[in-house]
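chain and backbone:
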Amino acid sequence: MFQLKLLFLGLLFMGTVNAQENISISMAERSLATPIISIANIIVTILILAALPGLVLPMIEYFKLALKKSVYKIVFLRHGESIWNKENRFTGWVDVGLSERGVWEASEAGKILKNEGYVFDLAHTSVLKRAADTTAIVLEQMGLRNIETKFAWELNERHYGGLQGLNKAEMARKYGEEQVRIWRRSFSVRPPEMDETDYRKQNDLEIFKAVPIYQMPRTESLADTCARAVGYWQKEIAPAIKGGKNVLISAHGNSLRAIIKHLDNIGDKEISELNIPTGAPLVYELDDDLKPIKHYYLGDQKEIARKIAAVKNQYKT
């Protein structure tokens, strides 16, 4: 805006100077006016030159980005609707399965990806069955059930501690919508910890045997989820993409938000506005440095927008 004002002033001065030069005046008057006009021309030049960098450089960056070609494509997929998604409960690390609709969403996602010509060499998913089952259904629909699939606890959903199993709307009525929004969407605030009995039961589950005891959570913030999910991205997923693998990442709302926050360099406050719907393939096109060029959902865009709004409003009474 400041650069535009400078440019406007410069053009205004130019118009004024040109108008003065066109006025018929005597030779004596002209000799007196010439130095003034020259000074005005210098001012015009300075104003325009001062404005140009602020206007031209963003335009150059815009066109550079527009001309940049994608080198890699990856697909993110949040699992299909789970039984507890349907019941609007905090799920976290509780290992619930897909609802009937969730199975259908996973099947539709596979069909969409196949119809759009996507083929994968490698799939990464979590150890929780709602994500693992979604991955299996998608790959079955695509005729890719024999590709390598890696199961990583680092891609698990965010751990909701003592809130796990509780209804989001009921918690909003009890504690207020703002408090539940903070628990769900703040970057650094952790929900209350799970109790000792539930923690011991969690530790005994076979699916979590690969989790180091010092990393076994009692609760997590999104920042905690980012640490493990982004670490896994850097260690396992990024090298596979660089190595030429076509990768599907089938995980959970918060573990995917964590990776996307890293890729798009989203701020800690702004990430609260990112909502990912169930069962909708999200394509990211990346450059040679794995920096995003563009991203988009595949499928019915109106239905996807409706589902994003539904995720946003889950805690409202």
